[in-house]
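Worked Example 4.2. Consider the chain below.
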Amino acid sequence: MLRVHRPLVTGSMLLCHPLSACLVGGGRAAPGGRRGLRGGDNNGPSRPEPSASTWRKPEPGRLKLNFDGSSRHASRRASIGGVYRDHEGGFVLGYAERIGAATSSVAELAALRRGLELAVANGWRSVWVEGDAMAVVDAVRSRARVRVRAPEDLRLFGEIEKLLLLLDDMSVSHVRRGGNRVAHGFAKLGHGAARPRVWRDVPPDEVIRLLQRDAEGR
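Applying the procedure from the previous section yields the following structure tokens:
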């Protein structure tokens, strides 16, 4: 069974303005270790692990963020989404919003930035970040600005770098699209969102089945 943290009405939704209104669980930090990217150091990027095909649970004491951007090529209208889950696959928080005209890389970076903002706002300091955009994952993993060239991409990447400094224990990995389907579901919801949305404790109906499959390893 898909576990949620508190029994609320299914599909409950929060509109968070300001961001502090999205605090979950009293803003307590998950236990963490050293500051910075796991498996690397200041002298260069860590060796990447092979991309997974399915979603994997984080270890106890950590939360996992999956993020995704969705860009409609004809109109260039884009939206973002993401989801936080615990070591049992339990839903903690999801978010979605539309961001107007944007490239696919801007959408991916904006989705990651929003997810990290929510981690900082809630006091979560031990986070495993995962996405299906290899270029974004590689740039964050290596902290290499040379991989990010467009002005808007550079601006977002700079904001992401500042947010990463506020985490004590952070790792990043790439997953194939099938392992990022819940985040993609939230990003699709963003296209129809009139305002930024955050779901806390109980997910929207549209992604419940996907969450169940991930929690069961299917």
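The chain is about 30% helix and 20% strand. The radius of gyration is 16 Å. Compare this with Example 4.1 before moving on.
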